[in-house]
UniProtKB/TrEMBL annotation:
Protein name (database record): IS110 family transposase
Xref: Pfam families: DEDD_Tnp_IS110 (PF01548), Transposase_20 (PF02371)
PANTHER family: PUTATIVE TRANSPOSASE FOR IS117-RELATED, TRANSPOSASE FOR INSERTION SEQUENCE ELEMENT IS1111A
All residue ranges annotated as the Transposase IS110-like N-terminal domain in the record: 4-154
Stretches assigned to the Transposase IS116/IS110/IS902 C-terminal domain: 201-285
GO molecular function, one term: transposase activity
Biological process, per Gene Ontology: DNA transposition
UniProt cross-references to InterPro entries, sorted A to Z: Transp_IS110-like_N, Transpos_IS110, Transposase_20
Length: 329
């Protein structure tokens, strides 16, 4: 087996290839992060007589800069795995690789792919990809709308000219119109896709999961494969990390926070509602408080519980059943 690690940046990709296992010969090369560079990378495999069926490519999920490369390599028949940057760095430290350069990172990724048994990457469906882009665009427009509303509020306190105030109001109207248009596109997309519509209905059957949080959960579970609910919670960054050693070290637990801050923020607001209106979450939250847990720790547990419930309804294809708690108690 041959292992290729690719460190992706905005303009280039640093590659480290181990031929015939990690202990084999190592070759490095740098290509541009565009289609020309991608074709040169494929030609490099050909010159080295590396078969796509005998190659595992490991990359880090680096914002958006890795996406075009992933789709290109997948279409070319290559096998890819995406690593968590935090875990890849911890792997490097465990091997006493302290240098943090693009070249060193590509070597770490090749070795990490060989030892970590990462899941094989699969591209999103066209509808999920479109949904992801629409959600990102909506978030951007909504952020702009909040800023313009803040500017309009401030303008009433600093004698801003009426012409400028009208410009701000026109901008607000335009942004509100854009939001409505995006929401309509999202609704149309969901209605046209039977699987997405069914899964969103399942998610919204959970008390405290509204449409916005439901869409984020829909995107999460359709974009990633999780074998357990705990894996999903860990991906989002809702797994508590303990710091304990012997009898002298007793550090407080804290969340890993290695996942999406957007999802965690949405789940936080959902958890605030859930501790009052979701039977499963409320029982757990009250029990934790009774046992002496801090309110914030109990609320984080509520967020984690919501992820587990979302995973459960989607896996079993069954709407949330409030009586399940009493039936199994």
């Amino acid at each position: 087996m041959n292992y290729l690690g690719i460190d992706v940046s905005k303009t280039k990709i640093d590659c480290c290839l181990f031929i015939n296992e990690i202990s084999g010969k190592k070759k490095t090369k740098v290509f541009s992060n565009n289609e020309i560079g991608f074709n040169n990378l494929i030609n490099w495999f050909t010159l080295l007589k590396i078969s796509h069926n005998d190659l595992l490519i490991t990359l880090e999920a680096t914002g958006i800069y890795h996406e075009n490369l992933c789709y290109f390599l997948h279409d070319a028949g290559c096998t890819l795995a995406l690593s968590n940057p935090f875990r890849a760095r911890r792997f490097a430290q465990s091997m006493s690789i302290l240098n943090k350069t693009d070249k060193a990172d590509s070597e770490v990724l090749a070795k990490y792919g060989a030892f970590a048994h990462l899941k094989i990457w699969k591209p999103d469906s066209e509808n999920i990809k479109f949904l992801k882009h629409l959600i990102a665009r909506r978030d951007a427009v909504y952020s702009d709308l909040l800023r313009e509303n803040n500017r309009l509020e401030k303008s009433t306190f600093n004698h801003t000219s009426i012409q400028v105030i009208n410009m701000i109001k026109n901008s607000i109207d335009s942004l509100q119109s854009s939001l409505l248009s995006i929401d309509e596109m999202i609704s149309d997309l969901i209605e046209q896709d039977r699987d997405l519509k069914s899964d969103l209905d399942l998610l919204q059957s959970i008390p405290a999961i509204g449409k916005r949080t439901g869409l984020l959960m829909l995107n999460l579970f359709h974009s990633h494969q999780f074998d357990t609910a705990s894996q999903a919670a860990a991906y989002v960054g809702l797994v508590p990390l303990q710091r304990q050693s012997g009898t002298s070290v007793r550090g407080a637990s804290r969340l890993s926070k290695t996942g999406s801050t957007k999802i965690r923020s949405s789940l936080y607001m959902a958890a605030v509602v859930a501790i009052r209106h979701n039977p499963h979450v409320k029982v757990m939250y009250d029990r934790l408080l009774k046992n002496g847990k801090a309110k914030m720790a109990a609320l984080c547990a509520a967020m984690r519980k919501l992820i587990h419930i979302c995973y459960g309804v989607l896996k079993n294809k069954t709407p949330y059943h409030a009586d399940f708690l009493q039936e199994n108690s």
